[in-house]
Backbone:
DNA sequence: AGAGTTTGTCAACAGTTGTTGACTTACAAA
DNA sequence: TTTGTAAGTCAACAACTGTTGACAAACTCT
């Protein structure tokens, strides 16, 4: 058998490759800690050579920076009816934050807390793209405090979910109370 | 200078070295994800050769198992006045869970969520040594749900703290509300 | 068509990882 | 003192990490 030349999935397109890397990296960083994500894994998931990551983004740290600062519609995560925010957020927790993007930044921030370098980067992005818009959406005097609290409860729910993955009545009951408490924070009660 | 034979800190004492390894590993696993903790780091912190870890505990995974299942007084963490539980827990969150041991298990569970192998191990230990005793301490019908919720809020607070390490008024206000909500869960309101 | 630039490929680097096995030292029983 | 075993040391292993630079292929302009 002669070595047939590999037919490329994507035609030569730097923008598309860059985007593919970015998307794959986003998924990886959302499900594993920063240091645990290998550039080869990201490259494989993007269908791309590992060296291209260095070419397009510089270092792995720079890639992480690009990922957390590329959130097209992060502020749309909590958009919608104020009265149903608690329930909607709890459902996001229940679904373990599927592939739909806006809440993905929260998972990335959650995973990167252990790494000094990554948490420094994601902290600022989190502040700019999540906390501040959320606080503005909430409104009121202690909006900043309530935004922090909402995120804390959300992340706590996510971690608790990850630690008890079964779908039983206890889990559902906890999510209901979580929704209730988050709604109270939104309402400013 | 002649190479003076290294004078050992500890006399030959397998029990003591085992304990030293266990303690060092506990600290490491509480501050870094499972895969990120190196056996050489643990050994260095314990003042011990890395090969001894393999000898005494088998694999790194076995060491982790030994760590999370060796919690002498885990259930004393929430012992004390029921009426002040919320405030005491919030103070633990504020102090970023210092070296005092009982809450350390929570940090370990928090860090290990990303690793499939480690989270499986810590999940069961968490259940046996934290959730169930806490639920029993709480009492009442939905004790299990409230225990899960308390742990979720606690961990959420810890993560939120890690993401905004400054000690400012916003932080304190958030911890106050956290204490308030946790106390409500304890009181069963 | 030819030159020049962009895009992708490949192999190698130095460093780290968990784990193993052979080795020397220290201690206790005889 | 000799002997047997427990405790500790050391070097090496294969596999993996992020990053680099040389190279080949494909596209764009003249």
Residues:
């Amino acid at each position: 058998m002669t070595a047939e030349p590999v037919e490329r999935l994507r035609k030569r397109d730097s923008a598309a490759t860059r985007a593919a890397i970015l998307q794959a990296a986003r998924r990886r960083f959302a499900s594993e800690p920063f240091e645990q994500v290998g550039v080869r894994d990201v490259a494989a998931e993007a269908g791309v050579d590992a060296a291209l990551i260095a070419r397009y983004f510089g270092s792995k740290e720079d890639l992480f920076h690009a990922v957390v600062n590329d959130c097209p519609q992060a502020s749309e995560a909590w958009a919608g009816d104020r009265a149903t925010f608690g329930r909607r957020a709890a459902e996001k927790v229940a679904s373990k934050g599927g592939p739909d993007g806006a809440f993905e930044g929260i998972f990335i921030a959650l995973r990167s807390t252990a790494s000094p370098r990554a948490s420094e980067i994601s902290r600022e992005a989190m502040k700019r793209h999540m906390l501040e818009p959320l606080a503005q959406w909430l409104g009121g005097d202690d909006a900043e405090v309530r935004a922090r609290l909402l995120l804390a409860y959300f992340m706590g729910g996510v971690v608790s979910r990850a630690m008890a993955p079964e779908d039983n009545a206890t889990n559902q009951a906890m999510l209901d109370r979580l929704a209730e408490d988050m709604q109270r924070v939104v309402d400013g009660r």
User: Anything to note?
Assistant: The interface with chain A takes residues 31-33, 35-36, 109-111, 113-115, 119, 122-123, 126-127, 142, 144-146, 148-149, 151-157, 159-160, 162-164, 170-171, 173-174, 177-178, 181, 185 of chain B (CB under 8 Å).
